[in-house]
From TrEMBL:
<dbReference type="InterPro" id="IPR022496">
    <property type="entry name" value="T6A_TsaB"/>
</dbReference>
<dbReference type="Pfam" id="PF00814">
    <property type="entry name" value="TsaD"/>
</dbReference>
<protein>
    <submittedName>
        <fullName>tRNA (Adenosine(37)-N6)-threonylcarbamoyltransferase complex dimerization subunit type 1 TsaB</fullName>
    </submittedName>
</protein>
<dbReference type="InterPro" id="IPR000905">
    <property type="entry name" value="Gcp-like_dom"/>
</dbReference>
<dbReference type="InterPro" id="IPR043129">
    <property type="entry name" value="ATPase_NBD"/>
</dbReference>
<dbReference type="GO" id="GO:0016740">
    <property type="term" value="F:transferase activity"/>
</dbReference>
<dbReference type="GO" id="GO:0002949">
    <property type="term" value="P:tRNA threonylcarbamoyladenosine modification"/>
</dbReference>
<feature type="domain" description="Gcp-like">
    <location>
        <begin position="36"/>
        <end position="190"/>
    </location>
</feature>
<keyword id="KW-0808">Transferase</keyword>
<dbReference type="GO" id="GO:0005829">
    <property type="term" value="C:cytosol"/>
</dbReference>
Length: 222
């Protein structure tokens, strides 16, 4: 059996899922105002392995959220994933955080806009079709009333910044799915299995999360 451990820590949601043949069989997660990833992540991993009745040696790969997202959260998740891969001699799979978030939306028309809160009116966003194909690359952007005006389709927005974005994104074709706030490891299961089948893995030693750090650099006014 192809068991893959999926780790998602890019946002406030500390999430771990065990998948078999691309289907989630166990998931543990918690989203808190204060990040508890350092305390919770390894506990969740141990509990899932024990509850599944398998051992770490049964894992064929570990998948981790690659970002964008919280610098600290990503570092914790990637460090844990690398440690497991090194110890077990198995491959590491990197999954786009925004695609994981978008994968929770089930629609047949329009476009899906997953957004992760950065600061103030800034977000990390991407654009996906209902089949989760990239329509526009990931960007770090400031949301204004003119954002996404080039898209004529119905746009479905998900993520943890809906409340602030609703104040400026007011077109009738903009639909906010408020119940979907954070990416979850259980949505990574099929994505990671598809990558595993074609050996789409990353170098365990050199892989770094996708921080979009340039977005945070500002120029002094002095």
């Amino acid at each position: 059996m192809d068991y893959i451990l999926n780790i998602e820590t890019a946002t406030k949601n500390c999430s771990v899922a065990l998948a078999k043949e691309g289907k989630t069989i166990l998931c543990k997660e918690i989203a808190e105002e204060g990040y508890s990833h350092a305390e919770r992540l390894h506990v969740f991993i141990e509990e899932i392995i024990q509850e599944a009745g398998i051992t770490f040696k049964d894992l064929v790969a570990v998948a981790v959220s690659q970002g964008p997202g919280s610098y600290t959260g990503l570092r914790i998740g990637v460090s844990a994933a690398k440690g497991l891969c090194f110890a077990l001699g198995i491959p590491l799979i990197a999954i786009d955080t925004l695609k994981t978030l978008a994968s929770q939306v089930k629609v047949s028309n329009g476009l899906i806009i997953p957004m992760i809160d950065a600061r103030r009116m800034e977000v990390y966003s991407a654009v996906f079709t209902p089949n989760f194909e990239n329509r526009r690359a990931t960007l770090a952007e400031i949301i204004t009333e003119n954002s996404f005006e080039d898209f004529q389709e119905i746009l479905y927005f998900v993520g943890d910044c809906s409340e602030k974005c609703k104040t400026v994104l007011t077109k009738e074709t903009f639909v906010f799915l408020d119940e979907i706030k954070f990416p979850s490891a259980k949505e990574m299961s099929l994505l990671s299995f598809e990558k595993y089948k074609i050996s789409d893995t990353v170098d365990v030693a050199y892989f770094e999360p996708y921080y979009l750090k340039d977005f945070m650099i500002t120029t002094s006014k002095k």
